[in-house]
Amino acid sequence: MTSVQVDQAPDSSEAAGPGGSAPGEGYQRGLGARQIQMIAIGGAIGTGLFLGAGKAIAKAGPSLILAYAIAGLVIFFIMRALGELLMYRSVSGSFSEYAREFIGPFWGFVTGWTYWLFWVVTGITEVTAAAQYMSFWTHDSFPQWAYALIFTVVLYGVNLISVKLFGELEFWFSMVKVTAIVGMILICAGILTVGFSDAADTATVSNLWNDGGFFPKGIGGTLMTLQIVMFAFLAVELVGVTAGESKDPEKTLPKAINTVPWRIAVFYVGALVMILSVIPWHEFQPGVSPFVHAFEKMGLGVGAAIVNFVVLTAALSSCNSGMYSTGRMLRDLALNGQGPKAFTKLTRSGTPLIGTTVSAALMLVGVWINYKAPGQAFNYVVSFATISGMWAWIMILVCQLRFRAKADRGELPQSSFRAPGAPWTSWFSLAFIAMVIVMMGVDKDSRVSLYCAPLWALLLCVSYVVLKRRNPAGAAFQKR
């Protein structure tokens, strides 16, 4: 099959022509503005909103809306910091490459491998969520682990396609998610104003403060949801990974980044305001999608089935993006001499076959987790995904601070897309992330990730020492 015949990209890559490969990288610039926009929008709409919000509502009540709004502002600062770096140099590998340049090769090594791990773990999270969604129809008559296995294998097959087709699939996946959320907001608005469905008698905006107040679990309860909230926003940085395969990145990437505020305002804040106005917050339960539950309470059984299909699609879409990211990140590491050379190989259609295959194989760990602990699988992987994903955000902010300082001294050219309010917004974002990590240590459900992080750090340190002895070039930064 020609789509999986392999070329050695580092030796055969040529300078890019219009719409061709990035110089020295071998990728095809097959992602257009329309696809980049929807990938950016859809990247922030996944399991964290559709499934994780149920647990967060139970912990914080209506004040979860405020948590999403504040965290969303921080995410915008992070994305503008990333945008400043991307306009300085748009390259596949993104923040891993910037960490090598502005902090040192060791930090690029750590960032690349940690972001790869993040997407592997996130892939496990998403297939776990998808398997849970299937129980809406099967009522546990089919084992959860079997669904996880099926989804992992199918999505691996999907990722053996060209980047252009991947972008098209993600465009329509994201369109389904966006349409569903907008539709649900409109239905809730209709219930509040016109008064139809079974929920009309109790639907009122005062549900946001009447049932125990806006902070029914206190400020502490709101703070304890921050790791769930931040997990919901993980993947917004995916546009940085697509930089090496984007058509005209100087135009498409800033436009995608600037959509962050309204995406958060509509899809998170707006959706939660509507849901919690129609259905009192205490009726939502952990492990149950608040969107599906809302439609069931409204008496719209068909609507609940439709929404369950949508959230299933959202989870599979996110896992699909994860497989895309892992292959690219492993290849970036290999191109810099910080990973096995075999990961540099591309298919004729520009897909990093071996890196994607290895990542998909590791995602099968999710099948075992679903088999051994189906009830706790989601909570386990969410915590570890959050801490590893936030590492990428920390590196983005630190690199932006280093870049801005050098640019202000005249050592580097200024970016054409400067982050507003920097460096103060970057320092504020770093402080906010630090607070989230502290809260994760307080929460017994998420504390496991902080136990695993030092072990992963130790493994990376040992690996880097071995790398430096066997391949000194891998410990030296060379701008691509």
Automatic annotation (TrEMBL):
Region (Disordered): 1-22
Keywords: Amino-acid transport, Cell membrane, Membrane, Transmembrane, Transmembrane helix, Transport
One GO term (biological process): amino acid transport
Subcellular location: Cell membrane
Gene3D superfamilies from the UniProt entry: Amino acid/polyamine transporter I (1.20.1740.10)
Stretches assigned to the Amino acid permease/ SLC12A domain: 36-471
Any single GO CC term annotated in Swiss-Prot or TrEMBL for this entry: plasma membrane
Pfam families attached to this UniProt entry: AA_permease (PF00324)
Membrane topology of this protein: Multi-pass membrane protein
Principal location class: membrane
The keyword Membrane belongs to this UniProt entry's keyword annotation: yes
Transmembrane feature ranges: 38-58, 64-82, 102-125, 145-166, 178-199, 219-239, 260-279, 299-319, 353-371, 377-403, 424-442, 448-467
Alphabetized PANTHER family for the sequence: GABA PERMEASE, L-ASPARAGINE PERMEASE
Family indicated by similarity: Belongs to the amino acid-polyamine-organocation (APC) superfamily. Amino acid transporter (AAT) (TC 2.A.3.1) family.
Identification of the protein by name: Amino acid permease
Taxonomic path: Bacteria, Bacillati, Actinomycetota, Actinomycetes, Kitasatosporales
